[in-house]
């Protein structure tokens, strides 16, 4: 399933770290230098203590599917359908929920509570996008 | 709004609509002028009485072709008005009349009109199908940067995970949700201005093509062309008005993470706005005669039924099952004009508000709810949420 048809993200001061790590296949989120809280999407400010000094933290854990949808509609010419998209949470990182595509199982087998591994794949405009991989188990 | 009941210093004095259809071959400006002139006449006012103008979305914001029409300054110029207050709203439209009511209540204008004009039906036809949300721009900006690139290319993709989560948590089924569009289609049959009026069966709903699971074709509203204008007037002008309607209470609360994908509890939406609204009135859910609840998608009706307290959290699917409670003649007639699912995507609660006013005046024709005294409005699904009660004069 090709995911390159679509609309690429605008890359900003806040989001550049995320998108450049994505090109390397790594999931990074914003982490507060003062209180250590992790947050997504990056806002350049800590959502827990409002500290303005932030760095990045890489997440490597398995995630859990909070919810999902399988899109069947061809919204753009050449868009390959159907494909599953999952909203993934990480129990060790409250406040982080990342939306991406899902690979590794038929779209119709996507379930809430599935465990997924972090991954990326080529997306629109040459930008790698989150693309989780079904781990074959439930949380 | 504060604790003082500013909304009771104003009335909804007029509503007007242009021709509405899947495609109406008039410009957005002409549809807008048709709706405004109709709404002002409906209020019993003259155009020169209007000193406030507002529109959604202002600033030409358009994430879909045909989304934004009727430029505020072109409208003022076309009508030759003098205004003391103007507002183009991109964000913060809790209710169509929210900012307008606040402006009139605080003396910024005496008679203000707000309009919403859509040409999304024509735009979809011209594009050969419903285009991707955000496809009017080369890159996805702001919150859309996390949605469009991964393939959430339409609001239906963004709302579908809410429906999936709701069904997972509360055991709701498509066989139950289907009664929302089926019942609203029956109401649309009684509305000559509705886009789709032929009967819809539950079987046809269940067999219709899937758009983004679990939302199928008939869970989604219908792109349309048309304009709706609403006039809000200072209450001291009531004697000059043909048929004003009261705003008993209104509230617009955004709490939680204001983002389609980050909203914490996707099984519960709109509760903050609804709670704040009920705190501003002595009326209770049992006093409501008619509900006009935003229905960009069926799941949004579910949210509002629960948030506004017509049933408990997790019980809306049972509430709509079979359709009897939400039909004309039932305990809570729902979206009596057909809603956006059958009446057309007039968007952002404008069609719902027009119908609420008509019901309270007894001007809803064949779909009139006898003796309607109180109408509940729940507007916009998701984090942006507004709730109101409109009552008979």
From TrEMBL, chain A:
InterPro entries reported in the protein's UniProt record: ChsH2_C, ChsH2_Znr, NA-bd_OB-fold, Thioester_dehydratase-like
Gene3D superfamilies found in the cross-reference section: 6.10.30.10
Residue ranges of every copy of the ChsH2 rubredoxin-like zinc ribbon domain listed in the record: 19-53
One Pfam short name: OB_ChsH2_C
Origin superkingdom: Bacteria
PANTHER family reported in the protein's UniProt record: BLR3430 PROTEIN
The protein's name in its UniProt record: DUF35 domain-containing protein
Source organism of this protein record: Trujillonella endophytica
Automatic annotation (TrEMBL), chain B:
GO MF annotation: an example: acyltransferase activity, transferring groups other than amino-acyl groups
Record's keyword terms, sorted: Transferase
Residue intervals passing through the bilayer: none
Family matches, as Pfam families: Thiolase_C_1
InterPro entries found in the cross-reference section: Thiolase, Thiolase-like, Thiolase_C_2
Protein name: Acetyl-CoA acetyltransferase
Highest taxon listed in the record's lineage: Bacteria
Residues in Thiolase C-terminal domain copies: 273-384
Organism: Trujillonella endophytica
């Amino acid at each position: 399933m090709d995911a390159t048809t679509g609309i690429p993200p605008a890359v900003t001061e806040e989001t550049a770290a995320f998108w450049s790590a994505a090109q390397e296949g790594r999931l990074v989120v914003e982490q507060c230098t003062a209180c250590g809280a992790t947050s997504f999407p990056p806002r350049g400010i800590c959502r827990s203590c409002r500290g303005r000094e932030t760095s990045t933290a890489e997440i490597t854990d398995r995630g859990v599917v909070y919810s999902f949808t399988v899109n069947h509609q061809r919204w753009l010419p050449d868009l390959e359908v159907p494909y599953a998209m999952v909203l993934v949470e990480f129990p060790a990182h409250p406040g982080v929920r990342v939306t991406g595509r899902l690979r590794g199982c038929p779209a119709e087998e996507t379930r809430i509570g599935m465990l997924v591994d972090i991954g990326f794949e080529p997306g629109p405009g040459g930008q790698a996008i989150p693309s989780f991989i079904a781990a074959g188990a439930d949380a | 709004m504060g604790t003082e009941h500013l909304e009771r210093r104003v009335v909804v004095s007029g509503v007007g609509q242009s021709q509405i259809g899947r495609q109406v071959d008039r410009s957005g400006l002409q549809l807008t002028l048709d709706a405004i002139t109709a709404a002002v006449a409906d209020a019993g006012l003259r155009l020169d009485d209007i000193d406030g103008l507002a529109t959604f979305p202002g600033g030409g914001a358009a994430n879909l072709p045909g989304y934004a029409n009727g430029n505020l300054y072109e409208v003022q110029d076309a009508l030759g008005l003098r205004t003391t207050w103007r507002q183009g709203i991109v964000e913060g439209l809790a209710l169509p009349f929210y900012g307008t009511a606040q402006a009139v209540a605080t003396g910024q204008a005496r008679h203000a009109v707000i309009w919403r004009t859509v040409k999304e039906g024509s735009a979809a036809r011209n594009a050969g199908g419903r285009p991707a949300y955000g496809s009017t721009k080369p890159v996805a900006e702001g919150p859309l940067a996390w949605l469009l690139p991964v393939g959430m290319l339409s609001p239906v993709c963004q709302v579908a995970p809410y429906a999936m989560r709701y069904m997972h948590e509360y055991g709701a089924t498509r066989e139950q949700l289907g009664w929302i569009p089926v019942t609203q289609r029956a109401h649309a049959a009684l509305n000559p201005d509705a886009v789709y009026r032929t009967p819809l069966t539950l079987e046809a709903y269940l067999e219709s093509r899937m758009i983004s699971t679990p939302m199928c074709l008939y869970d989604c509203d219908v792109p349309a062309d048309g304009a709706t204008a609403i006039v809000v007037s200072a209450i001291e002008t009531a004697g000059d008005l043909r048929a004003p309607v009261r705003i008993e209470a209104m509230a617009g609360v955004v709490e939680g993470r204001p983002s389609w994908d980050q909203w914490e509890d996707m099984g519960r939406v709109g509760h903050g706005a609804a709670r704040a609204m009920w705190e501003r009135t002595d009326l209770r859910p049992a006093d409501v005669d008619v509900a006009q609840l935003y229905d960009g998608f069926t799941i949004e009706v579910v949210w509002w039924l629960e948030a506004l307290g017509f049933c408990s959290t997790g019980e809306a699917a049972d509430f709509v099952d079979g359709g009897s409670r939400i039909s004309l003649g039932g305990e809570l007639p729902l979206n009596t004009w057909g809603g956006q699912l059958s009446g057309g995507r007039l968007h952002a609660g404008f069609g719902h508000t027009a119908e609420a006013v008509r019901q309270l005046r007894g001007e809803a024709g064949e779909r009139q709810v006898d003796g309607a005294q109180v109408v509940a409005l729940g507007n916009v699904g998701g984090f942006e949420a507004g709730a109101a009660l409109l009552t008979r004069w």
